[in-house]
Amino acid sequence: MKNIFKDKRNILIAGITFVCFLIIVVSVSYAYIMYTTRQKEINVVETDCIHVEMEELTNAINLVNAYPVLDEVGERNKPFRFKLTNTCGVGVNYNLNLEVMESEKRVASKNIAVKVDELEKTILTNNPTTEVTYEEEDYTGVEAYTIHQGELKPGESITHELRLWLDANAGNDSQNGKFYSKVIIESFQNQITEYQESILNGAYPVLADNLVPVEIDDTGKVTKANIYNEWYSYENKRWANAVILLDKTMEYKEYEEIPEENIESYFVWIPKYSYELWDLGEYSSLTSLDTSKVHTIPIKFGIENTSDANSNECTTPMTSGATGNCKIGDYMTPPAFITMGTNGLWVGKFETGYKGATSTANAKVNSSDSTKVQIKPNVYSWGNIQPSNAYLASYNYQRDLDSHMMKNTEWGAVAYLQHSKYGSATSVRINNNEAYITG
Questions:
Q1: Coil, strand, or helix at residue 213?
Q2: Sequential DSSP letters for 181-239
Q3: What is the mean pLDDT of residues 84-91?
Q4: CB distance 153 to 229 below 8 Å
């Protein structure tokens, strides 16, 4: 027995209806007798920080008796090296600004060549100007230029190298002059958007209440995913995972480990896709495996249904056994995505187990008790259950997420994806464990 969730988009409508009902009730109440109560707990909004730490790895640039040089000479100058670290939990964009200090006989900025890391050399005044911020007892900024822009993910570090020299085109006006400058780092929170892998073409994981996004390492350690960073990669066969907690009041921070004892069920995201047809044969009397048909199934992720109107596509026939206008080589959307009206499915990552069972016999229970549902590795698979009870247990497990017993078409959508280049082609199989241990 497998369970599937789909993206329930009518939840908001139900919520709006409920709010409207409350408004109507309040509007017809008469306040002849008044009673006031108040919230017991404090509403809390905690913000994260924005802070980029700068560590100077070398001394500042000090060019004494400088004279105009060619770029190939200036690029060999000893750089000023520094390290930037985002010490907070939000991603930031940053500007690397060079502020020019006031000094006697100041060399004009148009004569200063600038090179950041391995980027092309520029003349300082050819960079965008920005606001002057530096004012201390020793120096005061008079000009400021943004010489580089970058981005840092939470906890990420980057090292930069800065080189300055007197450009070869500098004139006599630069003689006996001085040029003092300071590096200023300006950081600000970048636009927060959920991570979306481009190859999915819109069929991105949809997270609803009670589904906690997670990452699972090779040792089985489960940590809460940061959905604003890369937490899945179908290109690299690392599918998106989510869990339902036993104690749903527990809240975990990004990258915090979620103990196995507080995980009730694991789910994996099956993005909407179309696949290339390789056979339209009749298999009703199939008695043996035709190994010549075994191959990697070509697929294309995307939220649009295939159509006869498009080249190399066909409209999915929604009648069992029908082929419609499809021919070998056409791409077709699996019917599961169409009937469910969704851009993807959350599917149980393992067989459904019977919660609390300590033996194979304990898990053989013909019951519709949805509180016994668990989808985990290394537990006893729920057996000896009639289809009607399997249907009810699945249906009532997470009704607000449209949980239900898997249909053949939905199983096919999982199996075909698993046999594409994005799957392992081996982990979807009949349980061959003698004790029917899942996973």
A1: strand
A2: EEEEEEEEEPP------GGGTT------TT-EEEEE-TT--EEE--TTS---BGGGTB-
A3: 86
A4: yes
CA-nearest of 290, 288, 299, 293 to 278 is: 293
The model carries a pTM of: 0.62
Contact between 382 and 365 (Cβ < 8 Å): yes
For 312-340, letters b (16+ CB in 10 Å) and e give: ebbbbeeeeeeeeebeeebbbbbbbbbeb
Report how far residue 249's alpha carbon sits from residue 136's, in angstroms, rounded to the nearest whole number.
51
CA distance 264 to 318: 35
Q: Contact at 8 Å (CB) between 119 and 96?
A: no
E strand or H helix that includes residue 5 = strand 3-6
Q: In the β-sheet with 273-276, what is the strand arrangement from edge to edge?
A: 299-301, 273-276, 331-332
- Are 422 and 21 in contact, with CB atoms under 8 Å apart? no
Which two tokens mark 307?
């159509």
Residue type for position 139: Y
Cβ(97)–Cβ(147) below 8 Å: yes
How confident is the model over 94-148, as pLDDT tens digits?
999 999 999 888 999 999 999 999 999 999 999 999 999 988 878 899 999 999 9
pLDDT of 44 above 70 = no
Half-sphere exposure of 64 (CA within 13 A, CB side): 0
Q: Is the pLDDT of residue 332 over 90?
A: yes
Q: Are strands 80-86 and 157-166 parallel, antiparallel or unpaired?
A: antiparallel
Distance CA 207, CA 92 (A): 24
Any bridge partners for residue 186, and if so which?
Answer: 95
Contact 280, 263 (CB under 8 A): no
Residue 67 CA to residue 73 CA, distance in Å, equals 11
- In this prediction, what percent of the chain has a pLDDT beyond 90? 67
What integer pLDDT is reported at residue 24 of this predicted model? 36
**Alpha carbon of 146 to those of 49, 79, 183: distances in Å?**
24, 18, 10
**What six digits make up the tokens of 72?**
């190939």
Strand, coil or helix: 387: helix
